[in-house]
Design brief:
- The protein is mainly alpha-helical and 270 residues long.
- It has two domains: 38 residues; 211 residues, no CATH class.
- 63% of the residues lie in helices and 11% in strands.
- The chain is built from eight helices and three strands; from the N terminus they run βββαααααααα.
- The protein has a three-stranded antiparallel β-sheet with strand order 1-2-3, with no helix packed on it.
- Helix 2 crosses helix 6 and helix 2 runs parallel beside helix 8.
- The longest helix has 30 residues.
Length: 270
């Protein structure tokens, strides 16, 4: 019989319940020391973008949409749509597409399809139905304009659709759940889609805007990951608040810049 000793240690951070199990096992022929750490997500309702008021279900319903990030990507699509000749109907259409596909569809799929369950045990069937419904409406709008006069939306939509499912459901072993996918699907493709729905073309101005939005996306995901890591490790509260402020400034900055650019374009100020 092999003697062994098991020690349990647990503690809470802002988002995680962490259980550490140390197993010490020894015999005449074998000595081992194994450590297993199990991370169990508690919830994310204390995140900065989640409302601090209302019932828990309401707070989760708003928080799960990641409104700041949804707003940023929607603004990127709008920037692409107002970078050239502009029809307000099409600006609105591309914004609706990204609000539904990303804000609702992608984030709901991520909530139930990822390896972790940051929002707790949600009604999976209901979430799937809402997510697929939102994605279906978004793609229907895109397909309408693609057949109407913007066929460039077809390849963009196919690529975005692939990333939407591959990233959020962590398909193919999570191969596409990485920064490169986020940079392309958040920073580049929305701008191209916005330009395509207006003029069915990609101009030099569109490419310049896409380059800028990619850099902003990189700053966003880098800061966001640092922020989450600090929270998970119960890090310095000053650093956590600093990262929060940066994320808020990026969000406000993108929205403000988009509104200013829209006004300039709409009134032909330059």
């Amino acid at each position: 019989m092999i003697p062994f000793l098991i020690n349990f240690r647990y503690f809470f951070t802002n988002q995680l319940f962490i259980l550490s199990i140390n197993i010490n096992c020894s015999s005449r022929h074998h000595i081992s020391n194994k450590v297993r750490i199990i991370l169990l997500q508690v919830d994310r309702i204390s995140e900065w973008f989640v409302p601090k008021f209302g019932p828990k279900k309401f707070r989760i319903s708003i928080g799960i949409l990641f409104l700041p990030y949804t707003s940023i990507v929607t603004c990127f699509a709008a920037l692409g749509a107002i970078s050239g000749p502009m029809q307000l109907e099409r600006v609105a259409a591309i914004c609706v597409i990204y609000v539904l596909a990303l804000g609702v569809g992608a984030h709901l799929l991520d909530a139930v399809g990822g390896k972790t369950k940051p929002w707790g045990n949600l009604p999976k069937r209901k979430i799937w139905m809402i997510a697929l419904g939102a994605i279906g409406i978004a793609f229907s709008v895109g397909i309408y304009y693609a057949f109407l006069d913007s066929p460039l939306l077809f390849p963009i939509g196919i690529i975005e659709g692939f990333f939407l499912f591959a990233y959020n459901l962590e398909l193919f072993g999570g191969k596409f759940h990485n920064n490169s996918t986020t940079l392309l699907s958040w920073g580049v493709l929305p701008v191209l889609a916005g330009s395509a729905i207006q003029t069915n073309s990609i101009t030099i101005e569109t490419i310049v805007i896409a380059a800028i939005t990619t850099l902003v996306t990189y700053a966003l995901i880098t800061t966001s990951k640092q922020y989450k890591l600090l929270r998970r490790n119960n890090g310095d509260i000053y650093l956590i608040k600093k990262k929060e402020r940066i994320l808020k400034l990026i969000t406000i900055g993108v929205i403000t810049a988009t509104v200013i650019f829209f006004i300039i374009r709409y009134y032909n100020l330059i």
